[in-house]
């Protein structure tokens, strides 16, 4: 709870965009809007938001899968890009889920302010477990509860983006590091669920083009590796990926899912 109170200057009211100050157990804006801090260590800027489709089981599966090392190359490259383009200052993980990526990329939150934000309350609740100094908030990407020019870098990993809001909260010279799927990302899952998917193939061309329109592209990197899967890892993958949301898992032959391809593009950019 204390790290969030100490970082009150980073935040803005999600209702009126007013400046936030720290009380004993809450953040309050100049207009009197009050946001209580959970004893679990996060602040909820969207207390009236309905529960989303993602639950504890999904986030538990996601956490275990990421811990399995499948994204280690991505994590290392994001660390390198942060050191290159935003070596100091606060970092926002926009769409942090249960916080696994932020904790892995920046394992020492005493070195710089590290904020994970997501609209999923169960995800943020899980991220906040165990303390550790990271900042966690339930918030909406369409109206970030952050001060203008407060972030040195924004991580946006396999998550929707809101580029006008990203531009607003970035410091001058700040960088966005966006990770998008490549066309072969999780191709084995697509093959397994082919008959039940709306689209059998995936293209990221529109996402890449929009990023280039909104930001000066500093560099791009591509990752593509295939890894073997244990039965438990295959089950976690099916449980966590949005590809299989709405599909009865019993209809999928998990025994056939023995490997997975992680194909990703990393885009580093600055506002034009």
Overall description:
The chain is α/β, with parallel strands linked by helices and 272 residues long. It has one domain (2-183, 202-226, 265-271): Vaccinia Virus protein VP39 (Rossmann fold). Helices cover 28% and strands 26% of the residues. It contains 9 helices and 11 strands. It has helices at residues 2-6, 56-67, 72-85, 100-105, 121-127, 163-169, 187-192, 205-214, 231-240, and strands at 20-22, 26-29, 34-36, 43-44, 91-94, 114-118, 135-138, 151-157, 170-181, 215-228, 259-271. The strands form 2 sheets. An 8-stranded mixed β-sheet has the order 4-7-6-5-8-9-11-10, with helices on both faces. The protein has a 3-stranded antiparallel β-sheet with strand order 1-2-3, with no helix packed on it. Helix 6 (163-169) links the parallel strand 8 and strand 9. Helix 2 packs across helix 9. The longest helix is centred in the first third of the chain and has 14 residues, at 72-85. The radius of gyration is 19 Å and the shape is globular. The protein starts with a helix and ends with a strand.
How are the secondary structure elements laid out?
Blueprint: H1 2-6, E1 20-22, E2 26-29, E3 34-36, E4 43-44, H2 56-67, H3 72-85, E5 91-94, H4 100-105, E6 114-118, H5 121-127, E7 135-138, E8 151-157, H6 163-169, E9 170-181, H7 187-192, H8 205-214, E10 215-228, H9 231-240, E11 259-271
Parallel strand pairs: 4-7, 5-6, 5-8, 6-7, 8-9
Antiparallel strand pairs: 1-2, 2-3, 9-11, 10-11
Helix pairs in contact: 2-9
Number of strands: 11
Strand order of the largest sheet: 4-7-6-5-8-9-11-10
Distance between the termini: 36 Å
Computed structural class: alpha/beta
- The coarse overall form would be globular
Report low-confidence residues grouped into runs of 5 or more.
Answer: none
Per CATH, the architecture is 3-Layer(aba) Sandwich
Question: What is the CATH first-level class name?
Answer: Alpha Beta
């Amino acid at each position: 709870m204390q790290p969030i109170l100490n970082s009150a200057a980073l935040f803005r009211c999600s209702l009126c965009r007013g400046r936030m100050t720290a009380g004993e157990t809450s953040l309050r804006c100049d207009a009197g809007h009050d946001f209580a801090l959970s004893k679990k260590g996060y602040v909820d800027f969207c207390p009236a938001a309905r529960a989303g489709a993602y639950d504890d089981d999904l986030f538990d599966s996601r956490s275990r899968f990421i811990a399995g090392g499948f994204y280690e190359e991505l994590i290392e490259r994001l660390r390198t890009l942060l050191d290159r383009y935003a070596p100091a200052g606060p970092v926002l993980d926009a769409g942090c889920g249960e916080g696994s990526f932020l904790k892995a990329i920046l394992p020492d939150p005493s070195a710089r302010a590290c904020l994970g934000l997501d609209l999923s309350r169960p995800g943020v609740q899980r991220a906040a477990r165990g303390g550790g100094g990271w900042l966690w908030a339930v918030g909406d990407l369409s109206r970030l509860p952050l001060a203008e020019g407060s972030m040195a870098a924004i991580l946006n990993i396999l998550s929707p983006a809101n580029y006008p809001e990203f531009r607003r909260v970035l410091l001058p010279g700040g960088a966005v590091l966006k990770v998008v799927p490549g066309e072969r990302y999780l191709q084995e899952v697509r093959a397994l669920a082919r008959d039940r998917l709306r689209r059998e193939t995936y293209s990221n061309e529109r996402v890449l083009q929009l990023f280039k329109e909104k930001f000066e592209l500093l560099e791009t990197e591509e990752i593509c590796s295939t890894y073997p899967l244990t039965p438990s890892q295959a089950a976690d993958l099916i449980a966590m990926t949005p590809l299989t949301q709405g599909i009865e898992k019993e209809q999928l032959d998990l025994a056939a899912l023995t490997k997975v391809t992680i194909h990703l593009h990393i885009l580093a950019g600055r506002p034009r």
